[in-house]
Amino acid sequence: MADPESPNEKPDGQPPFGESQRSSAPNEAFIRALEAYQKGVSANNTEQIEAAALDMLTQAARDAEKNPTPELALKCEAGERESRGDWVGAETCYRKVLALEEATGNAGLICKAHYDLSRLFLLVGDLERADACARAATAFGREVGIFPVLVMALENQALCGLRRSDYAGALDAASQAVAAVEPGRIHEGMRAGALAIRARCRVASGDIAGGESDLAECKPILLDKEISPIFAGSHSARASWWEVTAGMRAHQGELWGACEAWAEAVNSRRHVASLGHVSGPYTFAALARTLQQLGEAFDAAGKPEAGTRPLWQRRGASGAIWVCRSKGCSSLAAPPGSRLFRDEVGPVSCAYSDALKECAFRCFLSPSD
């Protein structure tokens, strides 16, 4: 499972939650792919897992195209507006989705609608509304009776708590997420992701030993095992593992060790941002935050020049903005309270415009020399 500090990708190898909940008749091809996925997990067969996951995603996309719904159309429009930095327009779309889902009375669909709104508010820095929607999603998630839905909602609530500096509330939600994951090998990736989030919450609360314990427990899954390149959620969880590790190393005075950990996190975030099926505002935001943290780590270690070229922290963000402006990008205005990026030019919301994807991706997302 991913998070807004990471990018909230869909669970690895699973269809879009809302559409799978909405379907009234199971797709036989999808069921076969799901069975193949489960067998691949049981046999620890990476190639079979990857092939089955791609098959499931393909089948889900085909079903959605054959049977488009007003909700799906609105979600697609919301995504397009997000890519242009039209946050108000995206919110309007998500609220229309919420109204339609509420009319169905389906707790799972209502949970997802609140979750999507929470992600958007968290992205643009509206922390109070992000938290309110996260709590609403959790409440409906408890009614669903499907534990991955509840885990998804609780993880998001934990991340909202972290951003609001409500460390006790964040830790409580993260602990509930870990406890909600059912046992079984097929769920070990989900549990590892939940543990990484709880480790972040424990460290933020000052419980370094507890954070180390959670990291040690999920390390065999997130670091020691090969992760398929297409599994964005797992790579995001790996990035989170390294981010928490970096924070602990800095706390312990291991400044260069912290730099190394942040660099590993950047590699994982960079990989996720390059994946076409999840690339967008959320993945770019997560990468941007991690890049900034790496730059600050180099500063603390006494080598600020080490982070200058790959980071954009001093020159790159402003340079990317200048490139967008020089090409006539019209989506630079950040909404009040936006905290997507902050450097000498102030809040930056154009990072997700098409212009930035075309220009800045080559500038500061490409591997450094």
Q: Structural class, from secondary structure content?
A: mainly alpha
Q: Total helix count?
A: 17
> What do the pLDDT scores average to?
77
| H and E string | HHHHHHHHHHHHHHHHEEH
* Strand composition percent: under 5%
Measure the end-to-end span.
Answer: 32 Å
Rg measurement, Å = 20 Å
Report the helical percentage.
over 70%
- Uncertain parts: 307-369
Question: What does the main sheet amount to?
Answer: 2 strands, antiparallel
Tell me the strand order in the biggest sheet: 1-2
Please provide the count of β strands. Answer: 2
The backbone outline, from C-alpha atoms, is globular
What is the topological layout?
Blueprint (H helix, E strand, L loop, with lengths): L16 H6 L5 H16 L2 H21 L3 H14 L3 H18 L2 H18 L2 H18 L2 H17 L3 H14 L7 H17 L3 H15 L9 H20 L3 H19 L7 H20 L7 H4 L4 H11 L15 E2 L2 E2 L6 H12 L4
Helix pairs in contact: 2-3, 4-5, 5-6, 6-7, 6-8, 7-8, 8-9, 8-10, 9-10, 10-11, 10-12, 11-12, 12-13, 13-14, 16-17
Provide a compact summary of the structure.
The protein has 369 residues and is mainly alpha-helical. 70% of the residues lie in helices and 1% in strands.
Structure in words:
- This protein is mostly helical.
- Helix content is 70%, strand content 1%.
- It has 17 helices and 2 strands.
- The chain has helices spanning 17-22, 28-43, 46-66, 70-83, 87-104, 107-124, 127-144, 147-163, 167-180, 188-204, 208-222, 232-251, 255-273, 281-300, 308-311, 316-326, 354-365; strands at 342-343, 346-347.
- Strands 1-2 form a two-stranded antiparallel ribbon.
- Strand 1 (342-343) and strand 2 form a beta hairpin.
- 49% of the residues are buried.
- The model is unreliable at 307-369 (pLDDT under 50).
